[in-house]
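Action item from last meeting closed. Structure (486 res):
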């Protein structure tokens, strides 16, 4: 009976998620009016809750663990509160970004519950605390104008925190990534990448002259060099790509971008010869089966999982994703592909793409250069992180140890991604407010123009005729009226 429920539910979940994904892109059409768009967003919420219920029903049926039902109920309350709070306090936020944020969190919690209930519960509470922390960020972003003036404060904070990790950080998988505070492991690079974007945006807001670009490049290079010395090459690559994209958009000079990419390619070759763990990952990427027992174990098992799942998946709790080392962090996409199927995995990528497109859309519509660059930089970081995570899992590129935002296990990654989404929502609110002010100004100008036109008509009926019907040549001299009969 359990097998039958699992078999039926996997198709149901694929259909529900496919419908959700379709609404992501259909709601972006210009021909869709606001009422129709709102209806599509409401449909997305229904599909999400139906998927969520279906998934936890299968997990409960296959484990008969009553704690799973309690955990499911807690998640329902959490998602409902998040959507209600955004609906009450931020009526004009992007509903698509809110829905996608909740949907990706939902998929992550479902997958983590299947992989490790304890880790799923921990991730859930991190999500609750993170959401409380980030709920006020959209308001502050839309109100604070001094953020563009903190250029060197951003640089100092970023370099200092990275330096502390490089010196005192704990080594994980050959790289210094984090340090502990009160027993809680924190990965500063996840938060510094946000500060880094604000630094670069502030620099190019001030000027895009050569000397300003040179200063920004030196400070950005210092960030990347510290990450390389810490052997956190995945984060270093994200910082580098974000800077190059922001540099090109701010200056519109292709030779800056081309020169930077050539320098990055040369640095990659140097890193390959300097760091052993980079060579290990490249060897595992080139032919993982040839080194299956050593370097290629993770990538090989990841490919086995994806291949075993096929298009429709094995069904929740029917696969063997735990055979993949680090499956909860770096290879969660493979676990999703194995049990929920290739179609579901493609839809997951498309939902991430819709988030990325929404970020770029907001960036293009911002009139202020500083906010435009912030939205662009954060969108680049999010999109490139998705590419690195999924690309490493499917052997498209060497594995970089980067998590899938909002889906993979990891407190620092989750909090930093929610901060990014909250900042984007703040920029969206700012854009909406600017549009409102512009429309109000246009309406006022039209009203004033109509008044001027009306007054001209009133005074210009007869150039020689006054309002009272008296001739303009009629004069009153010492109380005597004199008419001119020209």
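Sequence:
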């Amino acid at each position: 009976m359990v097998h039958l429920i699992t078999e039926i539910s996997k198709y149901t979940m694929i259909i529900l998620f496919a419908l959700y994904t379709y609404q992501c892109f259909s709601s972006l059409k210009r021909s869709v009016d606001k009422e129709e768009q709102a209806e599509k967003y409401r449909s997305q919420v229904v599909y999400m809750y139906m998927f969520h219920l279906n998934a936890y029903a299968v997990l409960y049926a296959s484990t008969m663990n009553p704690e799973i039902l309690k955990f499911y109920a807690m998640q329902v309350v959490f998602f409902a509160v998040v959507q209600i709070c955004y609906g009450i306090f931020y009526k004009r936020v992007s509903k698509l970004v809110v829905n996608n944020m909740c949907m990706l969190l939902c998929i992550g919690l479902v997958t983590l519950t299947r992989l490790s209930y304890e880790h799923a519960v921990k991730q859930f509470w991190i999500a609750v605390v993170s959401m409380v922390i980030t709920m006020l960020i959209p308001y502050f972003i839309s109100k604070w104008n001094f953020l563009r003036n903190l250029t060197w404060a951003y640089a100092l904070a970023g370099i200092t925190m990275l330096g502390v990790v490089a010196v005192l950080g704990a080594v994980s998988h050959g790289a210094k990534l984090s340090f502990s505070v009160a027993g809680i492991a924190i990965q500063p690079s996840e938060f510094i990448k946000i500060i880094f974007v604000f630094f670069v945006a502030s620099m190019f807001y001030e000027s895009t002259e050569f000397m300003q670009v040179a200063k920004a490049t030196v400070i950005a290079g210092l960030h990347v060099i510290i990450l390389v010395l810490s052997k956190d090459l995945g984060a270093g690559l994200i910082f580098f790509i974000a800077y190059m994209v922001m540099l090109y958009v701010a200056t519109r000079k292709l030779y800056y971008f081309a020169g930077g990419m050539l320098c990055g390619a040369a640095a990659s070759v140097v890193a390959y010869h300097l760091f052993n763990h980079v060579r290990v990952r490249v060897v595992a990427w080139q032919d993982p089966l040839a080194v299956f027992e050593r370097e290629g174990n993770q990538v090989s098992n990841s490919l086995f999982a994806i291949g075993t799942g096929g298009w429709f998946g094995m069904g929740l709790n029917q696969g063997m994703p735990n055979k993949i080392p680090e499956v909860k962090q770096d290879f969660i996409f493979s676990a999703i592909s194995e049990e929920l199927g290739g179609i579901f995995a493609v839809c997951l990528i498309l939902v991430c793409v819709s988030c990325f497109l929404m970020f770029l859309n907001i960036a293009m519509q911002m009139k202020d250069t500083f906010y435009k660059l912030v939205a662009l930089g954060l969108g680049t970081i999010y999109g490139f992180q998705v590419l690195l995570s999924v690309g490493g899992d499917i052997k498209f590129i060497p594995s970089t140890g980067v998590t899938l935002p909002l889906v993979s296990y990891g407190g620092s990654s989750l909090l930093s991604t929610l901060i990014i989404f909250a900042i984007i929502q703040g920029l969206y609110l700012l854009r909406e407010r600017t549009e409102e002010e512009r429309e109000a100004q246009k309406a006022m100008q039209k009203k004033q123009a109509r008044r001027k036109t009306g007054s001209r008509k009133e005074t210009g009926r007869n150039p020689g005729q006054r309002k009272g019907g008296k001739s303009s040549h009629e004069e009153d001299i010492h109380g005597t009226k004199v008419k001119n009969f020209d």
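Note appended to the action item: The chain has 17 helices and five strands.
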